[in-house]
């Protein structure tokens, strides 16, 4: 993002003529029809500035402008040189993360070990990875059974924090929240996914090994 009149870059043409004469006095222009009027150049200094209140990297991440330098103070009799300048728009954390779905249903084996993950809730965030800064949380109630942690892609990993018992409780319904680390309008920043974790019972079978009966748990 760029603010209006922010300096983008400065270009400078080298002229071997005496700078105290018109022969060595260079003037800079941007030929018409470039970048839809997003940038302008100082006629004397060669400083390129933005003309708009913001530039959206997600819409377009790079612009190429042609700069014309002309000595003799820009008069028609002056010599002309041109160069191309690539302007890359750097990313800012200006997009709010949200879950790809409003509702998730996850099947969790009863015998899943504590601290193992039960699933991943994917996010949409148009910012670059270094500007994706989600904060995940589970409101009180089921927060002691499940927890959240970010993946390497900044999605939400759900982790089991307590052993499950199908006969005691086989269904958990809870919400997972995501917020951004940087300040946005509180009314827009929060995004919620409703999540149901269905516990599937572990199976038990009986087999005979020689003359001894064994109970095998899977």
UniProtKB/TrEMBL annotation:
UniProt main location, coarse: other
Gene3D superfamilies assigned: Cadherins (2.60.40.60)
GO cellular component, one term: catenin complex
Domain called Cadherin: residue spans: 8-99, 100-203
PROSITE patterns: CADHERIN_2 (PS50268)
GO biological process, one term: cell migration
Matching InterPro entries: Cadherin, Cadherin-like_dom, Cadherin-like_sf
Superkingdom of source: Eukaryota
Protein name: CAD12
Native species: Poeciliopsis prolifica (blackstripe livebearer)
Taxonomic path: Eukaryota, Metazoa, Chordata, Craniata, Vertebrata
């Amino acid at each position: 993002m760029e603010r209006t009149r922010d300096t983008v870059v400065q270009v400078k043409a080298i002229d071997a003529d005496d700078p105290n004469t018109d022969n060595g006095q260079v003037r800079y222009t941007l030929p018409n029809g470039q970048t839809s009027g997003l940038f302008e150049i100082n006629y004397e200094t060669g400083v390129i500035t933005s003309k708009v209140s913001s530039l959206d990297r997600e819409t377009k991440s790079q612009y190429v402008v042609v700069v014309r330098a002309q000595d003799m103070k820009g008069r028609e009799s002056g010599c002309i040189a041109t160069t191309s300048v690539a302007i890359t728009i750097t990313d800012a954390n200006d997009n709010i993360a949200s879950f790809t779905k409003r509702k998730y249903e996850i099947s969790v084996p009863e015998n899943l070990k504590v601290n193992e993950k039960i699933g991943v809730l994917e996010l949409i965030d148009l910012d670059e990875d270094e500007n994706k800064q989600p904060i995940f949380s589970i409101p009180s109630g089921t927060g002691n059974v499940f927890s959240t942690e970010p993946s390497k892609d900044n999605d939400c990993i759900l982790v089991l924090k307590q052993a499950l018992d199908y006969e005691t409780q086989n269904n958990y319904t809870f919400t997972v929240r995501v917020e951004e680390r940087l300040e946005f309008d509180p009314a827009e920043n929060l995004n919620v996914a409703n999540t149901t974790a269905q516990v599937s019972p572990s199976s038990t079978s009986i087999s005979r090994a020689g003359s001894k009966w064994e109970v095998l748990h899977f």
